[in-house]
Design goal:
The protein contains five helices and twelve strands. The strands form three sheets. The chain has a six-stranded mixed beta sheet with strand order 3-6-7-9-10-12, sandwiched between helices. Strands 2-1-5-4 form a four-stranded mixed beta sheet, with no helix packed on it. By secondary structure, it is α+β, with helices and mostly antiparallel strands.
């Protein structure tokens, strides 16, 4: 059971198909890509841990300890941060099962506020969206996504918007989400 800061409780199964596993394939691909970047001394980028306070742990035996209750300390910011070519990177990664649009409910207001703050300080900030049913992954500059969110009355971003405003990230076996190639083209 996970308890959110607003008092709501949520239970989830940590499987790839359950609520807790949403985004896990993209996360694995990003972690593999980031490991490649680190090993090649190209960039240093890490997944940020979600701040959690553990409340209850079952200890049937030491090797089988199981967390049974935990609370999110505060809302998390974005998924990843690091440095590349002397620039701070900060980004959020989301998987989307829709073929036609990305629901804005998938990205939270505190994440948008965080992206705005890091942009004000000169960071390279972006969002990576994977349309799972289309097997396409897009790099979107955070400011472009923020501008869309702030000027549109829609509850989602159409898939066609990503085709126009995003950058399709070609799949690569060694670095499945090679976002640095987009950054090199877009920012340097």
């Amino acid at each position: 059971m996970v308890n959110y800061p607003n008092g709501k409780k949520s239970t989830f199964a940590a499987s790839k198909t359950g609520q807790g596993g949403r985004g896990m394939v993209l996360e694995q691909d990003l972690n593999q890509t980031n490991t490649f970047y680190l090993e090649q001394d190209l960039a240093v980028v890490y997944k940020k841990p979600t701040p959690v306070t553990i409340v209850k742990v079952d200890y049937p035996k030491r090797s089988a300890a199981k967390i049974t209750e935990a609370y999110f300390k505060l809302p998390s910011t974005t998924d990843y941060n690091g440095i590349y070519r002397n620039r701070y990177l900060d980004f959020e990664a989301k998987e989307c099962s829709s073929k036609t649009s990305f629901p804005l409910s998938s990205i939270h207001e505190h994440q948008i506020d965080h992206l705005k703050r890091v942009l004000q300080h000169g960071a390279i900030a972006f969002v990576i969206i994977r349309f799972t049913h289309l097997d396409e992954t897009y790099f979107v500059d955070a400011q472009e996504m923020i501008d869309y969110i702030e000027t549109s009355s829609r509850q989602s971003i159409p898939y066609t918007w990503f085709q126009t405003h995003g950058h399709l990230i070609a799949y690569n076996y060694v670095k499945p989400v090679d976002y640095l190639s987009i950054i090199d083209e877009y920012y340097f």
